[in-house]
Amino acid sequence: MPVEELAEQRDLMQSTVANLKHSNESQLCRDLSQQLESLREYRRTEQDKMQEQLKQLSRRLQDVRSRVDASKAQREQKSHAEVMRDLEAEKQAAADAIAAQESRQTQLNAETAVLEKQLQAQDDNIEHQMVPDEGVLMLQILRGLGVEPLTNVQTGLVESARVWTPKSAYVVPVCEDTQEHQPTPHQLAARLWDLCS
Question: What are 71-93's pLDDT values in tens digits?
Fold first, then answer.
């Protein structure tokens, strides 16, 4: 084979190798480019998923916070209502106790007034018994002097008197109207005193 043909074949082979090499490099570049794009797409997809998950977590967290705040407010409101109910119950109990005390005080005042009246009546009665009327006292003195009033058993009136003397006793009428009118102890004592004088 002539040298020229060999040279042409060698050049052709070199050119073919160069073309193949360039073609392989281009394919490799395209493959790498596609892989890189795929990776970028995957990364964007994953980032989007992560962003969506973060948003969902944020919404859930916000919802939980809202429920916690609502529950706390409800507990505080309930606690305030319970405190107000307790205070109202204590206030009512105190008012009832005061009313009962006032009622008891009124009852005690009434009972005290009744007892005071009874004691006053007893004092008056004792005083009346201890300090007799002037007429009664005079009758007692007259009896000591020997003048004894006599009461009619049928009428219950003092009609006469028995006068005792050192030697005898005699009966004298007290007054003419004793059949109709009973003299008071004072009047009777005065008339008996006249008999003694």
Answer: 777 777 767 777 788 888 888 88
